[in-house]
Specification:
The protein is mostly helical. The protein is about 70% helix and about 0% strand. Helix 2 packs across helix 3. The relative contact order is 0.08.
């Protein structure tokens, strides 16, 4: 599903308008995009029965949880890390890359 269709559906919902093929097409065309009738129908069908407000709220909670997880793990690593010696500060590029990949891996 093209993200522009999702954005158009969200915009229509926020404006209190019905999310249907015609409305999606108008929003996309107003934004300078060419609306595909088949894609519009597919989007409308997939969004049938979706509680937009609930979905938006759940997505926001998930984003906050994902954003907080790396910050928390970084804070834990700082607390557990003893004060570095001068020779430890001269890590090779490979060691630094390995450390970064462990944080995001």
């Amino acid at each position: 599903m093209g993200m522009e269709y999702v954005y158009a559906a969200l915009l229509l919902h926020k404006a209190g308008k019905k999310v249907d093929e015609a409305s999606l097409g108008k929003v996309l065309e107003a934004a300078g995009a060419k609306a595909d009738v088949a894609m519009s129908k597919a989007v409308v069908a997939s969004l049938d029965g979706v509680d937009f407000d609930k979905a938006i709220k759940e997505a926001a909670v998930q984003q906050v949880a994902v954003a907080a997880a790396p910050a928390a793990s970084g804070a834990e690593k700082k607390e557990a890390k003893p004060e570095a010696k001068k020779e430890d500060e001269k890590k090779s590029a490979e060691e630094a890359a390995a450390g970064l990949s462990a944080l995001f891996g």
